Amino acid sequence: MRGREFITLVGGVAAWPLVARAQQSLPLIGYMTSRSSKDSEPHTAAFLRGLGEAGYVPGQNVRIEYRWADGHYERLPDIAAELAKLPLAALVAAGGEPSAIAAKSATAIVPIIFLIGGDPVRAGLTASLNRPGANATGISFVTAELGGKRVNLIAELVPNAATIALLVNPKMAETGAHIQSARAGADALGRRLLVLHASISAELAPNFDSIVKDGAGALVVQNDPFFDSQRDRLIALAAQYSVPAIYHIREYPAAGGLMSYGASLLDTYRQVGAMTGQVLKGEHLQDIPVLQPTRFELVINLKTAIGSEILTGSISLRLHKCIGRIKAPALDCGNPAEREVTMFDLDTFIGDCRAALAADPSHRSVREVVARAVSDASAVLTGLGEPKRATVQKLYHSNDLTILNVIWAPRMTIMPHNHQMWAVIGIYIGREDNIFWRRLPGAEGGKLEAAGAKALCEKDAEPLGNNIIHSVTNPIGRLTGAIHVYGGDFFGAERSEWDPETLKEGRYDVEKNMRLFDEANAIYRTR
Questions:
Q1: Mean of per-residue pLDDT scores for the chain
Q2: From CA 46, how far away is CA 24, in angstroms rounded?
C-alpha cells in the first residue's frame, strides 16, 4: 500500500512541471492601464468577454500579465518596459494616451492594441486610422472633440450659468484639444469658460472652491483616467458645492453624478478584447483599422436631477416631461438623430454585476443591480427584445458569475432542483411562481416535502440562498421573461433534481431540462 502511495506521489510531483510547461507555451498577453485594478473590474470583465467571444479563455488557451498604474502616469514607462521584456503575443494599453504612448515607446515589435480618448495620428501612435501601420491599432473614443457638445448639454440643462467651469488634467496629451473644443462651444453660446487644472487628489477640493468663488454655474469634467479613479470624490464634491456637472461616461451618473455624454466604456473594452483576439489569430495590424464609436449616449440620473436644489423651476419641469415620455433613466429632449438614449445596456449590466460581486460576494449587492434593471421593464424589453419562445439565453458565463435570460412558456413547469450557489431572479415581464422544498429527515432517496411558496411578478427581484431547492411554474397564459443571476458556474456545478412523481433525488440533467423548453415551445405553437 505504501509503495503504491509513494508512486502516486512521485507521479503527482512529476506532473507539475508538465502543467507549468503547458501553461508557459500558451500565448501571453500583456495588459497595462493607467487605472487601478479596483476601478477597472467591470472594464476588465468586458475585455475578457470580448476575448472570449474571439475564442480565448485565460488559463485554457491564453495567459495574461496585468499591470496597474493606479492613476500615476509616471509609472507607465517602467510598466511598459517591464512587459516588453516578456515574450508577448500582444500588448493591451488601456486607460488613455499616457498608457498607449508608454507602450509604443517600449516596443516597436510587439503588437499593441490601445484604448485612447483622442486622435491616435496626432499622438504619434498610428500613420492613419484605416491603415495604422507599424505595431499599434485600437480604439479612439474621440472624446476630446466632444468637449463642446458637453458644454452645450450642461448649458441646456442649466441655462442661467453665465460661466461654465472645465476641469482638466494638464498631464493628459489631449488636454489642449479638449480645452479648444470646450471653448468653442462656450463661445458659441456666449458663455465664459473657466479652465481649472488637477492631476492629484489634493487639487480637487480647491478647484471647487474656485468654481464657487468665480461664480461658475456648471462644470464639465474632462475624460481622463485619473478623474475616473476619483469618481466618487468628484461626485461628492459636486453635491457638496451644489455644482451641476457633466462627465464623459455613464459610470458617473450610475454612481450618483448628474449626467454624462459619450460612448459606452464597457462596450469599447469588449471591442479591445475582440481586437486582441484578431491579433492572436495572426491578423496583421495594418489590416485592423482604428475603430471609433458611432453611438453616443446621454445619461441623466433623474434622482439626482429632480432631487437637487440646483435644478428647480422650468428645468425640473422639463425633466418631468421627458421622464413621462421615455420612461428611462436618460433624457432625450432634442433631435433623436443627435442623441441616442440607451435603455438597457447589457454590457453595462454585466459590468455592474461584476462590480457588485467584487464588492460583496453574497447576493446582496447583485440583487440591487437586478432590482434596478427590472424596475423599468420596458427598458429591459427594448434591450433584450420581446420574448418570442421559451428559451434559456446565456448572457454571461464565468467561473464565479452566470447571467441568463430565461423565457418560460405558458403553464410551463420545471421540476424541483437546487443550484449549489446563490441566485437572484428578476422578473421583467409576466409571472414566475416558486415552490420551495426541503429534504425529509431520514427519508430514503433524499425525498422532499413542500416548505413554502412565493409568486414573483413584474419588477420583483428575489434572492435565493445557496441551499435553496425550488420548482418553477409560469402560471399565466403568456410568456414570462426573467433575468437569472447566479453566484457561480451554473452549467459546471454538480447539482440535483427531484423526480416530479416520486420526489426522489437524482443528478441534474442539463440536456433533459433544455428539452423541456423545446417541448413547451411545441405546445405553445399549437395553441
A1: 83
A2: 25
Written as one letter, the residue type at 322 is: C
pTM above 0.90, yes or no: no
What average pLDDT score do residues 147-169 get? Answer: 91
Q: CATH no. for residue 317?
A: 3.40.50.2300
Grid coordinates 475582440 are at which residue? Answer: 274
The answer to whether the beta carbons of residues 216 and 164 sit under 8 Å apart is: yes
Element (H, E) at 408: strand 402-408
Q: 366 and 378 in one domain? A: yes
> CB–CB of 111/104 below 8 Å?
no
Cell of 292: 471609433
pLDDT digits (tens, 9 = 90+) for 258-311: 988 888 888 889 899 999 999 999 988 888 889 887 677 788 887 787 766 555
**464 sits in which H/E element:** strand 461-464
Q: Cell match 432590482: residue?
A: 371
Q: What is the pLDDT of residue 343?
A: 53
Q: Which residue range is the domain that position 129 belongs to?
A: 26-141+267-280
The domain that holds 444 is classified in CATH as 2.60.120.10
The CA distance from 133 to 276, in Å, is 16
Number of domains in the chain: 3
